[in-house]
């Protein structure tokens, strides 16, 4: 008898016991999946990249964190304009020379009612430098939008890959449950006429029940992944019941082209383009501007005061006393700079050094992470080649041999299960490796700029409208 469909079905229940991470459960696509690196499979996952890109772009346009960073950036720019403006002039109103015995304004010629205006000026070029620093800090906050986009793209890509893995597993489980049910009916017929043992029938029934359990666990994992995607796509997206046909393999053309031109162990030229590194550059620039602001403290600070005094009394000749006009220029002289200006200037210089060290640390960490991911990528690719060229071929040959032995009554039914189980376990492991390889590439893309998507910049008017609607 031909029992190949039964072998596949019987093996699934054992093969799906392979330990996997949180998202990993049973998965198999059959022998065609074992050829997933060929041209036909490539065209398949090329077509499945577009839906993911659309979901990422939708998530980016809906992301509140991007709007938050944009609003903070705009707020910092507005603060910079405010800080670069001269202080408001001060109005001074009062009287002077009023005799205390009579308290009359027209008795003593020295008595006057004064109105004055005072204006203080900042030291040197401090105002322009403060605006420059605020804009540099605003640029750093704006770069967090791009960093957030990479974070979302990476997270959603990994969820997509895991969901694709689970969906392939579900297809295989359902197909093999159907085959197992046919095998159960076949064994039931043979058992009724005495051609099969009861233990073979009971074993087949047990495998069907196990497959039902695996299908329920698989559905649970898929629902969990979709629920996690709602962080960016919204709860309404879950309620709409949209079905996602995901894939555990994606097109990484942009990433591969960047890796071909990259150095073997030093990837600083690419990492310098990462938003997080650019943020440290803006921090360095802002710190250097602070040094310039501290240097302005060595220049004098000027102020201007103009007073007009109105007099009601007559002078000594009996004539109306003339009104008075006074003008003053104030200037502080920074003579004792040892404990103030010098210390502030030194502190600003230390901040520049700290910002540069922070960038060096970040680049070293990111470069080490890239090298570690490249090691994983290389090993996963080698392991996939071994699965495709050696392990799966040997496992299929062994399964066919045991099948022939069972047909010739030289092998037991458990031998059939074990052989087919090993074959499907290897195919599952291969698909897990394919998924893990694509997850590694996703992490590399987040570091080296290998994602391809477009997002609309947050709109200031939208933020204002949201603010007003919240206030109401």
UniProtKB/TrEMBL annotation:
Gene Ontology molecular functions: efflux transmembrane transporter activity
Positions in coiled-coil regions: 363-397
InterPro entries assigned: MdtP/NodT-like, OMP_efflux
Signal peptide: 1-24
Pfam families, per the entry: OEP
Keywords from the named record: Coiled coil, Signal
Domain of life: Bacteria
Family to which this protein belongs: Belongs to the outer membrane factor (OMF) (TC 1.B.17) family.
Listed name of the protein: Heavy metal RND efflux outer membrane protein, CzcC family
Annotated source species: Photobacterium marinum
